[in-house]
Amino acid sequence: MQKQSQINGLNNVSMIVRVETIRKTNQYIVVDEIGKYIGKIDELSFIDTFLDKDPFEEDEYTWYYVDKQLLFLKIQENENS
Q: What is the C-alpha separation between 69 and 3, in angstroms, rounded?
């Protein structure tokens, strides 16, 4: 499976996620590679978490490589605002 081989190439500070748009907002719901809900984040904060790897498409979703620590920090900031 392509996604699994890409996951194996990641280190412990990065992760692969996909997002679902929340209607009528500029926020996303973030979901990890096993389908677990991670949290909500606004569009610009999500873009800040991108790593220098191209997103890829699989299973009708676009998957993004993100900085794990920064993603959780941005989600926490979003929840506190």
A: 21
CA 72/CA 57 separation, integer angstroms:
23
Half-sphere exposure of residue 66: CA atoms within 13 angstroms, side-chain side: 26
Cβ contact 70:49 at 8 Å = yes
Give the residue among 9, 7, 54 at the shortest CA–CA distance from 33: 7
If DSSP codes are grouped into helix, strand and coil, which group holds residue 8?
A: helix
Report how far residue 45's alpha carbon sits from residue 25's, in angstroms, rounded to the nearest whole number: 14
- Match 């926020």 to its residue by tokens: 27
pTM summary value: 0.81
24-44: average pLDDT:
95
